[in-house]
Every structure is written in structure tokens, then in C-alpha cells.
Design goal:
It contains three helices and no strands. It is mainly alpha-helical.
């Protein structure tokens, strides 16, 4: 019968790796969405609200916060 402490430790290690992988994947998805948004801001006349939703964001406030945090400037100022 396996030692319960070893089993719990292995589960904790698995969860740590799983969380790390999810964090990396989320970062990649956010980067792709922001790059697409930036391209639209710079090359089109599409309103920022529409760009926000086209990039998959459901909240304009969240989109603006993430965009500015990533690029140091708001989309309207580009």
C-alpha cells in the first residue's frame, strides 16, 4: 500500500506543474490577443470597443487595463 504522504506530495507536485503550464498558456493567449488588437489599432479605423470584442475580451475596462499594462500606452493613444 502506497504511503499517503508520498501520494499527497506527488499530487501537490502535479498540481504545481499543471498550474505553471496553465499560466504559461494563458500568457501566450493574452499575447496573441494583444498583438492582434495592436495590429487592428494601428492599421484600421475600427473603433476600440469593436477591437476589444473582436480580440475576445468581454470587458472594455479589462481590455484597456491589459493593453496599457502590456504596451505602456492606451490603444487610443497609439
Amino acid at each position: 500500500m502506497p504511503d499517503l504522504n508520498v501520494t499527497v506530495l506527488k499530487l501537490e507536485q502535479f498540481l504545481n506543474v499543471y498550474q505553471l503550464i496553465l499560466s504559461i498558456l494563458l500568457g501566450i493567449v493574452i499575447s496573441i490577443k494583444l498583438e492582434h488588437s495592436k495590429k487592428l489599432v494601428l492599421t484600421s479605423n475600427i473603433p476600440i470597443t469593436e477591437i476589444c470584442y473582436a480580440a475576445g475580451y468581454n470587458s472594455l475596462t479589462n481590455f484597456l487595463r491589459v493593453f496599457k499594462s502590456n504596451y505602456g500606452i492606451s490603444p487610443a493613444a497609439m
